[in-house]
Write a structure and sequence with these properties.
Strand content: 15-25%
Radius of gyration: 17 Å
Number of helices: 9
Largest sheet: 7 strands, parallel
Strand order of the largest sheet: 3-2-1-4-5-6-7
Distance between the termini: 31 Å
Helix content: 40-55%
Number of strands: 7
Shape: globular
Length: 246
């Protein structure tokens, strides 16, 4: 159980982030539902959590902005007194083949997916060190492990997230702070639902379990890593991918 814990989940207005926020709240955590552009959807997440008896608040912040990320974390600490769990889930895609990819699209993905994670960890670190406790959970991807054609920017950002995860784990392990990554495979979300059936069928053939995962599969893994049951796990990358990247 996560009763009394305060969790910040970035990019939590939809998809995997939404499921993570709802799941952590169901375990007793007070959840900060961060969003960038989807304010109405973030409020829906808050209402869903509150309707189930949980506690949540939505806060707008573009985590790729160093100062804005600082303001987000400072507000949470001022309002709630602590941050126990940070889930760096905010991410975007700008897929294209390398020869057609623009510098703008490369930078945009790296800034949100990788720099955004750095920004939030950087600003939450002092509070977690003060508490001598904390759970940092970064959402990577099998694309960051295997690579994926048409996703040079996304794969690079998610591989970078793994590097950050391991370095932070080594820096903070002696202070009671764990740092782990979850690497989803193909998950049934709005993003994958729009794929043509032929593409879905081709992907399923690469998955030993022969089906897509669900957002709940990711959220349950995050909840485990956030719990006391995972207190001796740090610096790890857990693939939740039906065996795709093994």
């Amino acid at each position: 159980m996560l009763t009394g814990k305060v969790a910040v989940v970035t990019g939590a207005s939809r998809g995997i982030g939404r499921e993570i926020a709802v799941t952590l709240a169901s375990k007793g955590a007070t959840v900060i539902v961060n969003y960038n552009g989807s304010g109405a959807r973030a409020e829906e997440v808050v209402k869903e959590i509150e309707a189930a008896g949980g506690k949540a608040e939505s806060i707008q912040c573009n985590v790729s902005d160093f100062e804005k990320a600082s303001e987000l974390i400072s507000y949470v600490i001022k309002q709630y007194g602590r941050v126990d769990i940070l889930v760096n889930n905010a991410g975007i895609t700008r897929d294209n083949l390398l020869m057609k990819m623009s510098e703008e699209d490369f930078d945009a993905v790296l800034n949100t997916n990788l720099k955004g994670a750095f920004n939030c960890i950087r600003h939450v670190a002092r509070q977690m060190l003060k508490q001598k406790s904390g759970r940092i959970i970064n959402i990577s991807s099998v694309s960051g492990i295997m690579g994926n054609a048409g996703q040079v920017n996304y794969s690079a950002s998610k591989a970078g997230v793994i590097g950050i995860t391991k370095s932070v784990a080594r820096e903070f392990a002696s202070r009671g702070i764990t740092s782990n990554a979850v690497a989803p495979g193909f998950i049934d979300t709005e993003m994958t639902q729009v794929l043509p059936d032929t593409v879905k069928e081709a992907v399923v053939e690469q998955i030993p379990m022969k089906h897509f995962g669900t957002a709940a599969d990711i959220a349950d893994t995050v909840a485990f890593l956030a719990s006391d049951a995972a207190k001796y796990i740090t610096g790890q990358v857990i693939c939740v991918d039906g065996g795709m990247a093994m």
